[in-house]
Every structure is written in C-alpha cells, then in structure tokens.
Amino acid sequence: MEARFYAAHLASYNSGKLHGCWIDASSDVEEMQEKINAMMASAPCQGEEWAIHDHEGIKFSEFTSLSNIAEIMEIVEEYDFAHLLLNEDPYYLQNVESFKDSCENFMGEYENKGDYAQDSYDMTKIPEAIQPYINWEDMVDDWEMSGDIRVIESEGKYFIFGNH
Fold this sequence. Notes:
By secondary structure, this protein is an alpha+beta fold. It folds into 2 domains: about 5-105, no CATH class; about 105-160, Arc Repressor Mutant, subunit A. The chain is about 40% helix and about 20% strand. It is built from 7 helices and 6 strands. Strands 2-1-3 form a 3-stranded antiparallel β-sheet. Strand 5 (about 150-155) and strand 6 (about 155-160) form a beta hairpin. Helix 3 runs parallel beside helix 5 and helix 6 crosses helix 7. The radius of gyration is 21 Å and the shape is elongated.
C-alpha cells in the first residue's frame, strides 16, 4: 500500500505561508528526517517545529512520530488488511505494539459476516433441520458487541479480528 504525508513548517503556517513537503511513508526514518530537515532549512520563516497536515493512504495524525510511521508501514507491508485497522482506530498510530497484535489476531475475510459464525461452529453437531433458523449475522453482531471480535466492513467484504 502506498502512503505519504505532508510535513508542514509550523512557523510558516502560522505566518500565513504554506511551506512543507510530501514524504513517502515507506521511507526509513533517516530518509524521512532528511526530507524534513531540507524543508525546514528552506522555510521562509524561522522556526523548528513541523507537523503532519495532510495524508494519503493512511490517516496519520498531526504528531505521529517518524519511528511510528516506519514501524506502521512495515506492518502494513506484512498484512494486506492492516490499513483498515489504522483508518478505523487512530489509537494504533500511537500504540504500534497493539496494532501489530490486532493484525496477528486476524480471523479472516468474508463476503458475508454470517459466514464467519458458520465457520466457527462444527456444523455436523447442529441438526440440519435447525440450521436454516439460525441467524448467523446476529451471532456475529453479538460477538462484536460483547467485545470478543472486531468487524470492519470495506468494499463489500467483512474483515474479522479477534480481541483476545
């Protein structure tokens, strides 16, 4: 997944001048820092602070650290679905370890969230005559409300993550 962010020079911004640069989030920390240093050196105003003012691909917050960005991008490259968690819950931008744990608890991708519930049961133990009366989607909703799982819907598919 491609992601980038706009690093803005805060003193320039506060003076009404837009000055900053777009940075590829998949760069390493040193490369990102070099681009920021070059942007800061060419700023029209004096100042040492910068912040993330825009993003593409992943919703980085204003003060997400460069080391967190680098770690997040490593995880995103490892797990195809990881960006869904980031865009759903900005908490992960500050707690990368929890983000990785959640990715490791990925239960699957389904066309219908009820399919996850059916996959969770040994269907041979449920009498065939009863199976059509079970509302599998409601079961998944119950599990999600109880905090056992997290369900993220994206592009017509359901991504299921365990919470334990």
